[in-house]
Amino acid sequence: MAVQIGDRVPSGTLIKMTEDGPQPVPTETLFGEGRAVALFSVPGAFTPTCSAKHLPGFVEHADDIRARGIDEIVCISVNDAFVMGAWGKQAGVGEKVTMLADGNGDFVKALGLEMDASKFGMGTRGKRFSMLVRDGRIEQLNVEEPGAFKVSSAEHMIEQLGTIVC
């Protein structure tokens, strides 16, 4: 069963590529008390919609999102940390978006937001979605229908943040 608005983010570990190599990022720290995080999930790094629209939208609108009370913008994908690091460099994310790997898909499975992309040769991946997490609880959750790209976009997140008092 998929998480819902009001649920706590499940405990787990994501991986960030750093200058010192892959480093664990516990979800308890990432989404801890006193933090507001805009997270978006893509089915795969370097894939067409993800590279042309999804990630660039959050990079382009990062300052606007942060100005609305968001501490960190996070992109996750069921890819390894090396791929996520390379994708972030290629996309020029800098410090605007934190690129985190969910290499085995454990986090998206714990969220109940995994999908079977075997027919594309990609195995189990995360659905395309975005969420706003404040103090460890899901405040907004936007899950795309298969093949769609609208409700998980940076622009949609900005609209939602405009209706939330930070």
Gist?
The chain is α+β, with helices and mostly antiparallel strands and 166 residues long.
Describe the structure in your own words.
This protein has 6 helices and 9 strands, in the order E-E-H-E-H-H-E-H-E-H-E-E-E-E-H. With 166 residues, it is of the alpha+beta class. The strands form 2 sheets. The protein has a 7-stranded mixed β-sheet with strand order 2-1-5-4-3-8-9. It has a two-stranded antiparallel sheet with strand order 6-7. Helix 4 links the parallel strand 4 and strand 5 (98-101). The mean pLDDT is 91.
- What's the total number of strands? 9
Q: What fraction of residues sit in β-strands? A: 25-35%
Instruction: Write down the secondary-structure element order.
Output: EEHEHHEHEHEEEEH
- Helical stretch tally: 6
Helix content percent band: 25-40%
Supply the helix-strand structural class.
alpha+beta
Low-confidence stretches: none
Mean pLDDT: 91
N-to-C terminal Cα separation, in Å? 29 Å
Q: Strand order, biggest sheet?
A: 2-1-5-4-3-8-9
Keywords:
7-stranded mixed sheet; two-stranded antiparallel ribbon; 166 residues; alpha+beta; single chain; 9 strands; globular
Topology:
Blueprint: E1 13-18, E2 21-26, H1 27-30, E3 36-42, H2 48-60, H3 62-67, E4 72-77, H4 81-91, E5 98-101, H5 106-111, E6 114-116, E7 124-126, E8 129-134, E9 137-143, H6 154-162
Parallel strand pairs: 3-4, 4-5
Antiparallel strand pairs: 1-2, 1-5, 3-8, 6-7, 8-9
